[in-house]
Design goal:
Helix 7 packs across helix 8 (160-196). This protein starts with a helix and ends with a helix. The chain is mostly helical. It has a domain at 88-196. The protein is elongated, with a radius of gyration of 34 Å. The chain has eight helices and no strands.
Length: 197
């Protein structure tokens, strides 16, 4: 039997109408079963009663227009992308809340894979970069071995020597760009000094 209050009310009306047609007297309120009395006592409610109350409150709010003109109403959800990703809402929540260290390992590894160059560039020694790449590969392999549900691990492994070479190349470019910027700043300050005199 379902606990839908609307269905119960309809059944009550049908039973009442049937009793009236058969000429039976109305049952007395004292004859109500214990469960009905417990449900109607103040301070106690069932999940169905709470759900009915919430649904009623939502419908009243809709009638009052409290949900009109909400931001994003009638617009498609942003960031869904072209391909189907069942975990789009997890990724969006992590991005909007700027959460770190949360989520299934597969999603965390995808995020780290996307930010790999920035994280490696924050390291100052080649040995630290090697250790970071080895640790990343170890975590990818561990995540692939786990048989706990969740999204699949599609993050590729990184080659240690290639990543170290790329780190060196980016570092050389950064130092060259910094030295050019320093030379330009020094030339501008010299020009200002000569103009003052």
């Amino acid at each position: 039997m379902t606990d839908d209050p609307r269905l119960q009310a309809a059944r009550y009306r049908v039973d009442k109408l049937q009793r009236e047609l058969d000429g039976e007297p109305e049952p007395e309120p004292d004859a109500a079963p214990e469960a009905d009395r417990a449900r109607s006592s103040p301070g106690s409610s069932t999940a169905t009663d709470r759900a009915a109350y919430v649904e009623t409150a939502i419908q009243q709010a809709i009638r009052r227009g409290e949900f009109d003109d909400l931001p994003g109403a009638g617009k498609p959800l942003e960031g869904l992308g072209e391909q189907h990703d069942p975990n789009w809402w997890i990724r969006r929540k992590i991005q909007t809340e700027k959460l770190t260290g949360l989520g299934p390992p597969s999603l965390m590894l995808r995020t780290e894979h996307a930010e790999f160059a920035e994280r490696a560039d924050a390291l100052h020694r080649e040995q630290d970069v090697r250790e970071y790449v080895e640790d990343f590969n170890r975590r990818v392999i561990e995540a692939r071995r786990q048989l706990q549900g969740g999204p699949p691990v599609v993050t590729p492994l990184r080659d240690v020597d290639e990543e170290v070479a790329a780190w060196h190349e980016r570092r050389v470019r950064r130092h060259a760009a910094a030295s050019v910027a320093d030379a330009d700043a020094a030339a501008r300050s010299r020009r200002r000094w000569w103009r003052r005199g």
